[in-house]
Specification:
Number of strands: 10
Distance between the termini: 16 Å
Order of helices and strands: EEEEEEEEEHE
Length: about 130
Amino acid sequence: MNENIIYLTKSPIFNNNGLVFPSEIEDENYYGIGNLYIPNDKLNPIYNIQAIYNEQIITIELTLKKDNIYTCNFKNVGKFNFFAEKLYKPLEYIGNIQRYKNKSLHYRLRLMNTNKAEYCVREHDFYFIGNE
């Protein structure tokens, strides 16, 4: 089974640089920018990532292409490339989900063409959400 790409945001707890899943934040008024992360310290050749398409959650396979670049192709929408950016200093997950407890995050996943992603949101009701 392929490992999942996860979406995390900075914890709203002051003096804490840890990350949590948005669903773990109790303050309804808190807004923070999140990112997609690879939840391990080495890159695997294949990952799963969740997306929304026509208001449905779907799972898409990301495949390592070369040099930390992952690719996926989704019917009717197109091909997407992601760069697995090695973090200078690993970040910590500090939430309550047991399988990620005390997990160091060494890679952030970035879309390489954000204009295409924005177009797909408008034209196809398609966007990446990561897994939880």
